[in-house]
User: What shape does this take?
Amino acid sequence: MGNPTHTEVSVARQSPQRPDADEPALGDTDGPTGPDVEPGPADRSLWDELSIDPVEIALPAGTGFTLRAYRAARELTPTDVAERDEDDPFLARRQVAETEDDEEVVILDEEFAALSAEDETEADADRKGGSDGKRAGGTGTTDTDTPDADADADADADADADEDAADDDEDADGDEEVPVFLTHKGRLLLFKTPESLVSFIRSGAPNDLSQLDGWNELSERVEPADIAPRDEDTYELDLVVENLRGGHDTWDPTLLIEAGEVARDLSYALRLPAVLDMLSAGSSLDDLDEALRASVNGGVGGFLGRRRLKKIGAQTASLGWRTIVGKISAVVDWRD
Assistant: This one.
């Protein structure tokens, strides 16, 4: 994957005065020639002021730059996916194909679901500890009271309370910060160079980030040197499947945790419900994420997290992530 763009700082080294012409020339001596100067950090003032960040994402097809911001959900108009879905009516059930050992392996959502169910069944069996799992249940009769005015009043009160709770939940959802990327009509715009990204920003071309208050100021001030994503905004989705295939002992927690974070953000911003479901709470890939996060901690928590990882099927994890990367790749609009 390409590294984020940084400005290299070179420092000229002064040769010492040489009274004797027979002394070795610069570069012929093993002695020190002066300290190297590390390049300074990129200027973040523009991004911090506008609360927008450059992001670098590596996919199997290549590496590209884009932008991401977080805003209250009520302030955003979601990307319009109507045209995207018309172009590909089977997008939600796209098959992800990959050539492996000169054979084409077709990955389907149903195959991942079947493997996940198999893993869950095995986990349930482990939790039962070999017991037969049978539980005795009692039966009985329940008297049904005759409805009266008090019951109706209680029902109305409960309905009103549920409605108020729903309104409160809606207000809370509206205040929640959600991700928005440089997208247009349901597709993620990825640029292969900082220059092409800056050219697009300045062009005034339609995109979903233009609804942000600071977009016009960004288009006037941004320069190619500003497109320098931080390490935490650089994601290597192209390495995830291969890492998972290597087996539990080779799994890279940082790589996989960061991949999960950006995949959730992208699936929300691009309106990919199938990917959101695969990463939702309680799913096998969410269990993987939680175990990875626990494993990097010290003490008992880290030990238990590593034990949980050993029980997660490597085949299921790699299969699920191959599907996720394929679905995200399918909605990328590459720009040179």
